């Protein structure tokens, strides 16, 4: 049954993926109407997140951000669909780095880089466009992912995300892959703003005025392996057009104090959200876990450094 569902979905996905963007944007408009007005997809989560994050904003301002978020979310859906067949020329044009020299400096000096990105604007296209940041010889792009329950769908999605040369692997294989490519210059990519599963194996800080558990793996690996951590800031210039700005978090990661890289990343994201809040993944249950009362007592038994 899983394989039959896979064949059907594959046919539908590829049929939709070859459609031009103007048709896909029409589909996005249709999706928005249904997602927002008919199915009320995660509205309670979105409204709670926005209200708690921006208590200074009026109901009207929050409503405008909410609607803009849902319109953008539907654009992301059709852009993800387009990812299955989008060309190299198209991805370079639509997901464009405006200051690649920031990364080129460290590439030329022989460093590996950890690119740390939030779920902001089109995060899916990062793993494609990074393959072209320094041509004709680009460092390997390594991306970890969460394994899907359906092996056929996992194969399909992995194939899509690997089309431009990206090397995809399950999170459990991260250290093995780093060892495999230790003699080849590479990028290691993180989406570091997701809510961690284990509250004890997290970094806790104030983010958007709320006590927040933050994924610590990006800092942990960056410091352990001496990567140069770079924040990727995406700005939406038009529908399905993005400009990517790079900002170095630190050029001496191993000399930083515990939590510095994590806090700097989250503060950069926070600053971006205050400027343009609608393009973050507000439907995610970011604050569903609270800091355990015995966190300080037990944190020393959990490896974070």
TrEMBL record:
Where the protein is mainly located, per its record? membrane
Q: Which GO terms describe its cellular component?
A: plasma membrane
* InterPro entries named in the record: LipA_acyltrans (IPR004960)
Q: Where are the transmembrane segments?
A: 12-39
Mind telling me which CDD domains this protein's record contains? LPLAT_LABLAT-like (cd07984)
Q: Which UniProt keywords apply?
A: Acyltransferase, Cell inner membrane, Cell membrane, Membrane, Transferase, Transmembrane, Transmembrane helix
Alphabetized GO MF terms:
acyltransferase activity
* Any one biological process term the GO annotation gives: glycolipid biosynthetic process
Q: Where does this one sit in the cell?
A: Cell inner membrane
Q: What is this protein called?
A: Lysophospholipid acyltransferase family protein
